[in-house]
Model the fold of this input.
Amino acid sequence: MFDWSDLRYFLAVAEFGSTLTAAKKLGVNQSTVQRRILELERGIGHALVRRHPSGYKLTEFGEALLPAIQDVEKAARGVERQVQAYTSELHGVIRLTCPEPLVSRISESALLDIFHERYPALRVEFVMSDRYLDLSKGEADVALRSGDPDDESLVGRKIGDSIWAVYASCSYVQRHGRPQNIADIGNHSIVGFDGMLSNHRAAKWFANIAPNATVASRNDSVLGVLHAVKSGVGVAPLPTTIAGMHDDLVQVLPPVKELHRGWYLLTHPDLRNTPRISTFFDFVIEKLDLVHPILMG
Done:
């Protein structure tokens, strides 16, 4: 029927009885007030004000509508106050859960220092576990995870790529040589994925390409697999970001396409638009130039 914002012009004229005074109050010119009042009347279909020698007075219909329009103004100001209070709540802790190997990479980068400098009342706290923490139960606020999100209760966006390749230690290569291709992995000792990682894509890939390989060690964490490979007991696929940090590891085969996945920043829908979480999300997206080296090397 009409533009809700035009109601404020009507209220100003009703209060001051003058389009000139109303214009000064609203910070616009007088012609704008007059035009918006006419548009409001056109939308409603009835005259609301009449010009008199002493100024503007409300019509009978305008008088009848005035209390309801004043209620609209009160409600709008209440919304403004709530929004202001909400957006001013940029303080507190953001509990971030991510794979343990990423903690040192994030901490050693400038990412969090810049965030804390910009938002001194906000603090990022790492929450670590051997399992995926349940954001819907409040075990963490934000998750940084690789792989296609399988929890439909979470929202977020892709912020990078997770790339995996096959690695061995320098000592292993010296003793046993290196696989010549993927099919050759079955002729080498491998480090298997166990426990919570038994359904990991890397475990399934191993089972598919080297079902009869000798398993020298099994581990239920990526860090465990990393340390087993570093010890020289066998070969295994590892994230290039993490494995590339270790000089005693050799990438014996190039990145495996089947193991590529995305990195996702995730949170619960109830938290996504809260000030501290939305601020953190916006910051991470803004600083992808810093985030990508952390996630992708």
Summary: The two ends are 57 Å apart (CA to CA). The domain at 4-87 is CATH 1.10.10.10 (Arc Repressor Mutant, subunit A).
